[in-house]
Amino acid sequence: MEFILAILIGIFYASGLYMMLRRSLVKLIIGLILIGNGANLLIFLLGRITKGLPPIIPGESPVFLKAYADPIPQALILTAIVISFGLQSFAIVLVKRAYSVVKTDDLDQMNSTDQFS
Amino acid sequence: MLAAILLGFLFSGLLVFTGKFLKGRWAVLSASIPFVLFVYFAQFIGRVSSGEIISQHIVWVPSMGIDLRFVLDGISLIFSLMITGIGFLVFLYTSAYLKNHEYLDRFYGYLGIFMGAMLGIVLSDNVLSLFIFWELTSISSFFLIGFKNKEESSRKSAVLALAITGFGGLFLLAGALILGSVAGTFTISEMLSSKELIANSPHYIIIVAFIFIAAFTKSAQFPFHFWLPGAMKAPTPVSTYLHSATMVKAGVYLLLRFTPVLGSTEFWNSTLIIVGSITMLYAAMHTLFRTDLKGILAYSTISALGILVFLIGLGTKEALLAACVFILVHALYKATLFLVTGIIDHETGSRDITMLSGLRKVLFPVAIAGFLAAISFAGIPPSFGFLGKELIYESTLHYGNSAILITALAIITNILLLYSGFLVGIKPFTGKLPERFSKVHMPSFLMWIPPLILAILCILFGIFPSIIQESLIQPAVTSLGENGGEVHLKLWHGFNTILALSAITIGIGVLLYFLIKPNKKVETAIKKLEFISPKTMTEKFGNGFYYFSTLWTNYFQNGYLRHYVSTIILFLVGVMGYTLLNNTRYRLVYSSFTALTIYEVITFVIMIAGILYTVFTKSRLAAVAALGIVGLTISLIFVYYSAPDLAMTQFSIDTLTVILFVLVLYRLPKYLNLSDIKTRIKDGVLSIAFGGLISILALEVLAEPQGSEISEFYAENAYLLAKGKNVVNVILVDFRGIDTFMEITVLTIAAIGVFALLKLRMTAKERITTGIKK
């Protein structure tokens, strides 16, 4: 299982990078989302995965009575998902704005500010 | 003493506010600053000459061994008096020379900083603070040399000077740091006691070599001499100040200061003798081919500096005495001649030696000053220069086996210098006055009094050397570590070899003056050889470097995001891949893996299909939809593996993203498909390599044991400390509550940004100013 998940993460990264290398701005954002998902899964996997044991203390007991999934990667990923939503929504709106101003979605036509004579 | 050094900086700082006031008729008042400093240093003459060393110690950065430690001994005193004394005259002269100049206040500001920094150099007893002041002189001289900033040649010269002296400054820092770590102290006076330790250290050669480079660049020694003639583009008062008494003498000072610590070794002495003699001869030869007054003075300055380095290289007591005297001799006559040249330039508008003649009829007091300085320059009795030259010959004659060779070198140099001295100080004033100069009139007395004072000193110190013998020269020689014996300066030594050598020098020199007439032809001929000069090579190197860095920048900073990303990833894959290949053990412990169920397999299949569809579809809407499916399968994975909170978050966020995408991107043009097949294959290969690397990395990490103390802490204390049963929630809102608060802040900012972007309406005017067409 872990093995397949590791391969899957690789696919996420590969497809994300491929999309980021395209010239279209929309594809850039899609690539960013894919890599973000891959990163979340990577953290999740490296925190070791456990089946059916959520980190919630059961019933009336004040402490865990049996094994539980690692809560730290979950807390980290939860933060990451929310933050990446902030980033994505800003980026999507920015693309729309850029398109309505420069009338193109092509990154190669937006590089004039970064060129050195 | 700290106050004395800071006064120059303070003055410059105040000019920011009072500049307008000073620019007008009160400019002359600024000369009071160097005057006060001169008086301040002059009052120490008595104490220093009686052998006292005045010091001041202020702790500055104790953890790094940097103290503000100032010492006023004989050699510092001579330099301080020259800096402030000649500074005073230059300040006076400037007030008339640049009268009503638009940026006179700026000029005084730079001069003030420069003077303060020079005083800092000669008074510092800590190598690191010496370095700081050293760099400050480089920087302030950059502004002074480039003062006429509207001329391209002036700007170029300033950059060249800064590059060369700054280059040397770095070597000074490196040398000082190594020296400090070998000696165990950064205080120069404390290094004296570890002289043996330093000389036997394996780093000795490198320390000395670095300090030599610093001194040679500053003091314009061959092959770093070329910035100095270029620096003549500066207004004449700057040339006077920088090239007679201060800037270029800083290198000489550095060598003198370190003579007791690093000197008296084969490497020290022979290097200095060789470099010094090449410089003095090379530059003295050059004066023959110049027709610009300032050009002649520039090369004769380089030559004089060569003589000083040469004398320090000889290193005997006689040679050091000669060096101390010659520093003063040179400062006096060279400052005079620069000031005289400035007057000629100012009044006639020409500095061409082939055009100027007969000016004594219109500029008589200036002619006197020029004549007296030329006498001292040439070393004709009874001038101070004669005394200096006698001492030089005395020290070369008494220098062991190679006495004849080095005396011959000194004589040739002096003959050539005599010629150039006459050329600058006498030639413009003799002969017939051309018609075009007959209307020339005397400048303000502020301009001709300073050179006259200096010229009179040139003679006065020659006739009455006792004035300075006890008070200045003796303590200076003592401070260089030569304690034995008293110093006796006198004009008349009786008939001996030295006198005969002087006579020969003067005879041939005067003959040369009458035989050789400076003309433009030779100067132009010499210019043709410039392609092999160090200056051209430095410029070529500079241009080449500039060209190369432009190429480099354009290659990497080309404005294409995907190039940046692929460069970074390619590097990462290369470095990480290499390490992984070498260190990976490829062990997969299947037994530790969790078992696979049919749900999971189906989820994975859907997920991979979703990813591939996202990447390869031609429709944007389809890509977004597929992306939504991928997100939902991820939330299923979270469900399978005990992360209910993550599953919920992923589900809601993913839904929101898809909705936003569809709403906003609905109106975009057709999905672009711009790259050709070759680029796609290239990107594909890089992507697969990157993905594979991440997979291997993940598997490698899984094979390592995992520490879980922190997780255990949170799990055990979630209920006990924070009264919560869902550990993930407790971590987010309680243990790491402030982080979550920051996260909310970030999201709020993003939300405001989104809102602003959606509501932004540009007016027609803004569209034009941002260069955007409708």
The overall strand count of chain B is: 2
- Adjacency order of strands in the biggest sheet of chain B: 1-2
Average pLDDT for all residues of chain A: 85
Portion of residues in beta strands of chain A equals under 5%
The third-level CATH topology of chain A is Helix Hairpins
Would you mind describing this structure in some detail?
The complex is a heterodimer of chains A (117) and B (774). Chain A is built from three helices and no strands. Chain A has 117 residues and is mostly helical. In chain A, helix 1 (2-20) packs antiparallel against helix 2 (25-46) and helix 2 runs antiparallel to helix 3. The model of chain A has no long low-confidence stretch (mean pLDDT 85). With 774 residues, chain B is an all-alpha fold. Among the domains of chain B are: 276-518, no CATH class; 561-712, NADH-ubiquinone/plastoquinone oxidoreductase chain 6, subunit NuoJ (Four Helix Bundle (Hemerythrin (Met), subunit A), Up-down Bundle), CATH 1.20.120; 713-774, no CATH class. Chain B has helices at 2-23, 32-42, 45-49, 74-97, 104-123, 127-145, 152-183, 188-191, 195-200, 204-218, 227-230, 236-245, 247-262, 266-287, 293-314, 317-348, 364-378, 384-397, 403-425, 445-463, 466-479, 497-515, 520-527, 534-556, 561-583, 598-616, 620-640, 644-665, 677-702, 709-722, 727-735, 737-759, 764-769, and strands spanning 54-61, 66-72. A two-stranded antiparallel ribbon of chain B has the order 1-2. The model of chain B has no long low-confidence stretch (mean pLDDT 84). Chains A and B meet through helix 1, helix 2 and helix 3 of A and helix 24, helix 25, helix 26, helix 27 and helix 28 of B.
